[in-house]
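Worked Example 4.2. Consider the chain below.
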Amino acid sequence: MVNSRSAAELLAKFRLVSDSFPETTQIKAFKARGGKVFGWLCAYVPEELIYAAGALPVRITGYQDETELAEGTAHLSSVSCSFSRSCLQMALKGEYKFLDGIIAGSTCDGARRLFDHWCRYVDTPFSQIISVPRKYNTSTAEFFYSEVISLKSNLEKYLAVNITDEALLNAIHIYNRSREILAKLYELRKRDDPPISGGETLEILNAAVRMSPTTFNDWAAELLAQLDKSTVKHHGRARIMVIGSVLNNVSFMESIEAQGALVVTDGLCNGIRYLSDPVIRQGNEPPLQAIARRYLTAFPCARMFPAKERFDRLVRLMQDYRIDGIISENIRYCVSNAHDLPMLQEKARTLGIPILELDIEYGTSCSGQIQTRVQAFLEMLEVKHPKPMAR
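Applying the procedure from the previous section yields the following structure tokens:
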């Protein structure tokens, strides 16, 4: 852990927000002040719009750890991904009763069916799903913009507010600031011996979508300043990128690093994809149009077509972060990422970067079998990339 007292205290704050969800102090305090809380499902839902409406956006996730999902499976069946079943079970058990609304993106069958069952069996007052095109061009940009306009109109009606351009510009500023701070945090991980681990980074990312963005920015900026001058150095047997399905379980990341991996970056929707690409206005265009364009053109999901933009970005990450190996954690029945992997393997092979494939359930930690495979993978990487002898 970081040896600077203030940095350690800040990391503990982020950890508390991450571990206490959904019973976080920040959400409870916002509700106590009469605020509305909206859950969003999928990184294609624009947080800025929710925030500009005066509500608190909170990302919907499942249980932190692998859990028996009897209720979720009874509704969605065992051939649905355990992420969607975990989210639904939390909702069915009343653990999302604080939500005033749920907003989803139609990005995969799991997300779509989760939304359908949520609307039918969970008493959340507001619900809307926005259709997300699978490619970007002029017509799809116009279509997605119309979907976001529809969401704005429905939020205004439900909340009895007028979402002004001024409110949208303020939200853009706040969330761009979050992305800027997180991007600088990732820059620190490019160091030979970064001052922050992959597990600690994931705790910060979890907290980012579970609390007020202005408070998050204050905490994260202070932490960044402390880490930048920290003497802490995290070492590892190999520099690792983690890719695959949504990953919120900090213990999974920590268990990989406990084997000697140094996780320096990722390709996750709740990781580098979340913080990539600020909202940039073109001329005097409506702020909402700039928001819609950012969400459709940001670091692509595995579902998007063509795949070239996604692979080009991942290759740049491999090079920029000097990756020795990649660990792919794919939740069973996560079709998009599973179909994406063979093409990514080909790209990584041209760079001489091996990939370890782990087929897991959402929330799983490193079992003995997974630990053994990670150990063997790291040993192979050590042979492939021997470290200089200490003098």
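The beta strands are 37-41, 56-59, 101-105, 126-130, 238-244, 261-266, 325-331, 355-360. The chain has 16 helices and eight strands. Compare this with Example 4.1 before moving on.
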